[in-house]
Amino acid sequence: MKQNFKKMLLVSMVVGAFFFAFTLSACEQTTDTETEGANGEPQVQQVFQIGFVQPVEHPAFTEVLEGFLAEMEVQGYVEGEHFELDFQNAQGDNATLSTIADRFVAQDKDLILSLGTGATQTMRAKTDTMPILGAAITSFTAADLVDSNEAPGGNVTGTSDMAPTAKQAELLLELIPDAETVGFIYNSGEANSVEGVNLMREELEGRGIATREATVTGTGDVQQAMTSLIREVDVIYTPTDNTVASAMAMVGSMSVESGVPVIPGASTMVEEGGLATAGVNYYELGRVTAMMAIDLLHGADPATTPVRVMTEESDIFINGDVADALGINIPAHLAEAVTRASE
Q1: What is the pLDDT of residues 41-64, one digit of tens each?
Q2: N- or C-end of the chain: fewer Cβ atoms within 10 A?
């Protein structure tokens, strides 16, 4: 009887050990894949887990994602085979953004990729150890995300879409040479928008141009702000501001109706109804972000990985349809920068 019991116990232990090993192997396959090495032996290939978050729907963010995925593929990283991208959109809700951040941290992602200032600040508030790659952020220092662009000093680095404000001011005055007063519309709660407006104000006032401003806290304020500015200014400037960008179609419509041009900070905002800008190519920014992501996934330290500022890669974008509607003549040397919806 005792011998039978011992045999049964031994069998149970063997079965239990096999089940445990099988379960552990199955769990590991959620983050690793098995491939055949050069010698024909199976080898485990890590599948990197990337948490990707954006705060709102935004054409610029879409271009960043497209550029990111394209460059990852160019570099030999296939989604689903070499990395998993957990894409999340907070849809403008801060509580949702916080929940997404908590989940990414709990899942111990290999990398958190966050678009925009607010999303990156939220991610950084949740962890000071997981690598965070911010993208489409105007000023990492103004947002208190890094010590400096050259030496971030923490777990955050990334790519900046700092607008070339001097180039934008020159373009504004070339297209609207009689402008005497420029109005600013932006969300005063976005640190990077404040920074962008301050830089443009310096550029314009240094050229003898007067300025006015109307701040907003949400998309519901944009129409009223536009209405007040249109009465007082010759042209309106808005930085790369998420709030205004979300209402850019309305801004563009009001611009054409009133005859007051809008110079936005981003190329995607020109596509939505702005007149023109000298801005960052967000698809290209996404490609640079992908190359930084690969470095971080393979052990690069965010603290010593410099922030990439894309100002030097800026291009001029002109909405030909809006220019025609406003009766603005485009100088011959800028003809190649003109695009129209029909093209």
Answers
A1: 555 568 999 999 999 888 889 999
A2: N
Q: Which residues contact 64 (CB under 8 A, 6 or more apart)?
A: 115, 135, 136, 282, 283, 285, 286, 289
CB 47 within 8 A of CB 31: yes
CA distance 127 to 142: 20
pLDDT tens, position by position, 273-325: 999 999 888 899 999 999 999 999 999 999 999 999 987 667 899 999 999 99
- Show Cβ contacts of residue 29 under 8 Å, excluding neighbours closer than 6 positions: none
Instruction: State which CATH number among 3.40.50.2300, 3.90.79.10, 3.40.190.10, 2.60.40.1220 fits the domain covering 165-279+314-339.
Output: 3.40.50.2300
pLDDT, tens only, 152-202: 999 999 999 888 899 999 999 999 999 999 999 999 988 889 989 999 999
Helix axes 282-297 and 59-74, enclosed angle (nearest 10): 50
Domains 47-161+281-309 and 165-279+314-339 belong to one CATH topology: yes
Q: State yes or no: pLDDT of 75 exceeds 70.
A: yes
Domain covering 47-161+281-309 in this structure, CATH number: 3.40.50.2300
CA-CA distance, 34 to 103, in Å (whole number)? 27
| Integer Cα distance of 89 and 98 in angstroms | 11
The domain segmentation of the chain, as residue ranges, is 47-161+281-309, 165-279+314-339
pLDDT at 187: 94
pLDDT in tens, 238-263: 998 889 998 999 999 999 999 999 99
DSSP string, 91-160: TT-HHHHHHHHHHHHHTT-SEEEEESHHHHHHHHHH-SSS-EEEEEES-TTTTTS-S-SS---SSEEEEE
